[in-house]
Amino acid sequence: MPAPTSANDSTRNPEQLAATLRAGDRRALGRAITLVESSRADDREPANRLLEILTPLAGKSIRIGISGVPGVGKSTFIESFGNHLIDQGRKVAVLAVDPSSALSGGSILGDKTRMETLSRRVEAFIRPSPAGSTLGGVTRHTRETILLVEAAGFDVVIVETVGVGQSETAVADMTDLFLLLLLPGGGDELQGIKRGIVELADLIVVNKADGELAAAAERSAADYRNALRFLRPRSVRWEVPVETCSALEGRGIDRIWALVEKYRDTMQASGDFTAARASQARRWLWSETAESLLALLREDPAAAARMQTLEQAVAAGKLSPRVAAQELVQNFWKDGQLK
Fold it and tell me: For 213-224, what is each residue's pLDDT tens digit?
């Protein structure tokens, strides 16, 4: 298991770090993200203070979640999409969550090497992070990182996930628009796409619509449009579009951004945009509360010892996990404090 990481000593002054980050210092942004991702107890207080300062200054971006099966071309699409946005005067942050090594816990792929042209643009910021054991292809601290890059002035935030899976609701629950990227194909492949993932999508894009696959991509898009008629959309105010594009050749990227802007304008006009973010923030609160309580239990020596005993009883089939969990909480939590 990798040793806990620590932020640089220069982050011990959250006020100074926040001011430097707001001034556009990319190294300060990197240090700030490292601070909030740190698992060290002595980094907790400065990280919380930094978030306290910067959170009111965040929230002005459009947050886009992008997912798709391995091989669909997510990195190529994001690079083409990001370059187009920068050409339109935008500043783009890409939070690319890589698959994690089972041995080191580190990122395997490294998205900066997969987005070479985008990473060289001064208006882009790419932050690859290992997914670790977190479900949904996002790290626990992805939400905090979104706030930090927004406070640093990035007005488009893209969250790229590991791939399609049952827990992709995690990225949909921290972004404004969920974009599902698909490969050309139809028939059996259409049946193989998980219905739940399609129902999460606000925009569906069939990539690799070039060369010999161009016709197949158009057929696939038509198939998906027909299939969507039988699914309930996430919002009654938005009919999910299905588009084709060639990320490799840059064709169709402008249409996709136009649809993103149309979606944002539609949701903002109805009030759904603000309501959705408020709902996400409430769920984030309860998620962090659960994580914090679990951390307190693990840090308490008596609770940790009792937890080990209960784990052995559960593993041996002698005790129900539900009963064990309730016993642990009841024995070590009273009047708002650990005993």
Answer: 999 999 999 988
- The model's pLDDT over 142-157, given as tens digits with 9 standing for 90+, comes to 999 999 999 999 999 9
CB 110 within 8 A of CB 143: no
pTM: predicted TM-score of the whole model, two decimal places: 0.86
Residues 219, 266, single domain; the answer is: yes
Burial degree of 296 (CB within 10 A; 0-12, 13-18, 19+): middle
Q: Which residues pair with 159 in a beta bridge?
A: 65, 95
Burial 54-75 (b: 16+ CB within 10 A, else e): beebbeebbbbbbbbbeebbbb
Number of domains in the chain: 3
Cα 152 from Cα 63, distance rounded (Å):
14
Q: Are 102 and 71 in contact (CB under 8 A)?
A: no
234 three-state secondary structure: coil
Last residue of a domain, one of 57, 73, 99: 57
Angle at 40 between CA 302 and CA 42, to 5 degrees: 95
Same domain, 236 and 91: yes
Q: 318: domain CATH number?
A: 1.10.287
Alpha carbons 322 and 105: distance in angstroms, whole number: 30
CB 77 within 8 A of CB 205: yes
